[in-house]
Every structure is written in C-alpha cells, then in structure tokens.
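Weekly puzzle thread! Below is a chain. First person to post its structure in token form gets bragging rights.
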Amino acid sequence: MSVRVGILGATGAVGQRFIQLLDDHPTFELAAVTASESSVGQTYREAAKWRVDTPIPDDVAEMEVVPTSPDGVGDADVDLLFSSLPSSVAAEVEPAFLEHGYVVSSNSSNDRMAEDVPLTIPEINPDHLDLIDIQRDERGWDGALVKNPNCSTITMVPTLAALDEFGLETVHVTTLQAVSGAGYSGVTSMEILDNAIPHIGGEEEKMETESRKLLGEFDGAELSMHDASVSASCNRIPTLDGHLESVFAELESDPDPRDVRTAFRNFEGRGDLPSSPDQLIKVFGNDEPERPQPRLDRMYAGGMGIAAGGVQHTPQGVKYNCLAHNTIRGAAGASLLNGELLVEEGYV
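Winning reply:
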C-alpha cells in the first residue's frame, strides 16, 4: 500500500527532517512540498537552505514548491499532510485543509489542548485517535486533525506512562534543551555559548498540560485529564540536538529502582508501525549513572527512541534522567508516527 503525502512548511528545520525520514519509507510517497510565497515556483533545492546531515533525496530536490493552500496541493492528489508550520501560521492555514477533507498530522502547537483534537503518542494513547469522530461531528468537516506533543513533553511522557503502574501522583521535571529546538535562527551563538538560558517561553506550560492530556482516559465520548500534577522548569543549553530531562516522580507505591528500570524496559513500542522501536525506552543500569547523554544517546533507534538512566529511590518515589532527539522523535518523527497510526486505524 502506498499513501501519497505532502509536507506543509517543507523548507524549515522540521520540514527538512520530514523529508529525511520519508526517504525510502515503506508506506509513504512524498508528492507535494509547500512553503511561503517567496519560495513558490522554485525547485526544493533552490528554496531550502538544507541543513540536515544527509543529502537531499534527488527526487525531492527537483520537486516544485507549491503554495500552502488546498489549491496548491490539489494537483498532487495527496492522502495525508504533515504540517511543520509555525503555530501562528498553522492556526490560520490548517482549518482550510481540514474543511477540504484533508487529514493532517501536525507538529504545530496550536489546538493541541482542544477537547476534540487527539494529542497522540501511538505507544501511549492510540485510543485517543477516536476523538476524530467527535471532531468531525462538532466541526462539520470531512478532514481530520491530529497533533503530536511538544518535543520536551514527548521525551518525558513515555517514562511517566511506564511509571503509572506504581500510582503516578506528582511530577517535577527540569529540562536541558538543545538549541535546535528553537529553530536554526532561534538562539544566537552570542546568547548560548558559555551560557545556559533558564527560561523557554511557553515550554513549561506545554509540558504541564500536554502530559496530563496524553496520560488521560478517553471513554469514547469525553477525554479526562490524568490526576497527576506536573511542574516543569525548562532551560536551553549549548547542545545541538537531544533534550535531557531530570524527572522527580512521587508515586503511590514505593518501587525499588530495579522495578522501575524493568517497567521502563518492558514498556513496548508499536511493532506494527514502521517507525516505532521494538523497545521504546533504552535503560541504563546503576553501573552507568552518567548516561544518557545527548551526544552519545540521542540517536537510539535512529532517533525515534527514548533513553533513560540514573534511576534512584527518593523518600517520595524515584528520580531519573531521560533523553530524546528533539527534532526526530520530538518533532517530525512524532508526526510521521501519528501518520502511520492514522493509516493503521483506517483514517487514511
């Protein structure tokens, strides 16, 4: 089965990751790339300042960039769209595609917390995809909108889902986030070199709300947020890729660190989806307390996995570190995986 797809905002940093991940994908065939008006009519090679560490695929390099509109992608006959648009643009543009019947798997932050929009990590809450039926009824469109969470949220939530068997009550997290999370021009070298920036606007609120929605329960009619409270402190540091996070979890029960590592290790991926690792969380034992590290561990499972280590007992529960590649698992790869889930569940 071949599914024709398009990328909205294909020339940016996340759009380039989409193109890299779609190259030789077993299901998806890239048929359309869109960008701003200044790039329309150019070849992709001409329009994109390519910064990914693999070459532009030859067939994509010669594709013509089309407008970011339903008319722009209409001739490509696509079945699914991946959106990497800035949220302010996506909030204006995505509804037009949905009203025209397109299915959109979006990395943009707008509408993530909307009650009828699935915020989905396929290994965590695939059943939330059924919110699409409510979404279509309430909004009166034939299309469907699915969101993936923020890059810092997606690093932590798989580990929290694994801990939920012990009674997850309270979470405190401090992040050390890579500069690529701000986009190529988001943080200047003079700001970040020999420095750390202890605030990332809007990031803390996203972690605190998105985590509870992802871990919440959907009864077929309504989605309820998880009861756990989440408090986040988000910081930018001078690493290129890979968000490292220190998590302190208060639990109802009192598990031994060995039990926590086992729970992490046994938390399964989605073997039926091409981009999901068989073992979602790679676990470092107490003989490697200095792992995970961004430079060494961000490419676990091709950048689609989570690495965890440093698990220690605390009087309230456990503390540990976790890491994920922020532009692969945390952005383009997360949307790609949601696209695979949409196909698997028959929405595409």
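Puzzle host: Confirmed. Bonus trivia for everyone else. Residues 88 and 277 are 32 Å apart (CA to CA).
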